[in-house]
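Task: sequence in, structure out. Protein: Galactose-1-phosphate uridylyltransferase.
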Amino acid sequence: MNNSAESQQTPFVYYQPSAYAKEHIRITPTTLADGRDFFYLDDDPAYVSGERTRELTDPRQLDYRFASHLDADGHEVPYAAPQMRRDPLTGDWIPMATARMNRPITAGPGATATGNPLAARKPGDPYQDGEVPDTDYNVVVFENRFPSMVQVPGVSADVQYVDGNPLWERRNAAGRCEVICFDPNEHGLPADLPVERLRTVVEAWAFRTAEISHIEGIEQIFPFENHGAEIGVSLAHPHGQVYCYPFIAPKLETELQHTEQYFERTGGNLLKDLMQSELEAQERVVMRNHSWVAYVPAAARWPLEVHVAPVRDVLTIDELDDQERWDLAQMYSTLLKRGNAFFDTGDGKGMDLPYIAAWHQAPIHDARREHYRLNLQFFSFRRAANKIKYLAGSESGMAAWISDTTPELIAKRFHELGPIDIDA
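Result:
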């Protein structure tokens, strides 16, 4: 019997595994007890070959995720689907998900749970409401139990109006929210993961982008990572998320407006030309390898900010070829390590940097996608070893940014931490 990963790989309709993934990553889908999608992504050879298999049965006794419930008076109450309302002043859609108030929080002073729902199942552990059916894993992806957006079967996504007033549009927030756990070590840091594990994470981003792009009603796919208590993470575990919006988020909408205007004016690609301008200036480029360039943008907002762009024109993560996926894993690993060393705490060890890593990729249906370009925007709120940049009146009230440093100083510090050329 042929037990190669390629022969065992569960077929997906739109995802095309890279050459490496065909042989070295195995994706196994299952369904959690309440009906949510769950996927194991294994890079352990014993699981890739089929010699060992994962636990597919979720032992929890959970109600169907969209089931109605009885209120205090015994009346049946339907599932409360998240809704979103449109701000007439900005055109922004604002999702509202009251169920998230009940999600477990295990990090920071507001912790409400002692167990970790992202950890592998521990036989005999008193906390038995974990999301992973098996007692170990490599990388897993699953639908969020407390989503900000979700598509509820049989519920219309048509526009309605708050109080019947056409000024206030309202729709169900019919998107999708997924969690990606990078590693089973719940006390580990993404910066400490081997490049091979981050390569599996990159494949997870590509896998979910390819599949979710074909779900009706989804307009934008946003993989991202929140890390650190200062950022506001509720679960201390190396993980990220994928938000799939039924609209184009305000940040991307603004970028699309500018990239389209630039194309109409010059015939060029703004994101490509920005990368090229940084390469020509040289001063703010902090890393390069065969496929990627990392630089501090000349108008950086954050006290630590790095943009990462592919050398080749690529619209979305799933379009990356095998070499680009490997090179991305290498660059991301190096970026995280240097980010942790950026601020000197006096002992030469740096710190666990709080950061957000935000993937900006082309929207799914909008025609302006052709003039966009994949890019990662990595930034931190921290402005010194013992200081946080707070978004006060100008930033929060008017979105008018005031920087506490300069892009050149940020780049200079990165240059002190290691070479620009990181090709192995």
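Residues 322-341 form the longest helix (20 residues).
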